[in-house]
Design brief:
By secondary structure, the protein is mostly helical. The protein has one domain. The longest helix has 14 residues. It is globular. It starts with a helix and ends with a helix.
């Protein structure tokens, strides 16, 4: 079973792949998630995802160093 748009948003935010909320939205849309803007419009969801992205983001150079 595939993830809902909101479940995918939280998974991506926790993954450290998205630097901020705007990039998270772009990634979700690129991945084919539906109704991204409408589902993530709530201030509470947006604020939570922004905080998760900020705490989890790893720049590509940081990811490379951890892999070594």
């Amino acid at each position: 079973m595939s993830q809902s748009t909101i479940e995918r948003a939280y998974a991506l935010a926790r993954s450290g792949q998205c630097q901020d909320f705007a990039r998270l939205q772009q990634r979700l849309k690129a991945d084919g998630c539906r109704a991204v803007d409408a589902l993530l419009a709530s201030r509470s969801i947006r604020g939570h995802l922004e905080a998760i992205c900020a705490a989890s983001f790893k720049a590509p150079s940081e990811q490379h160093q951890e892999a070594e």
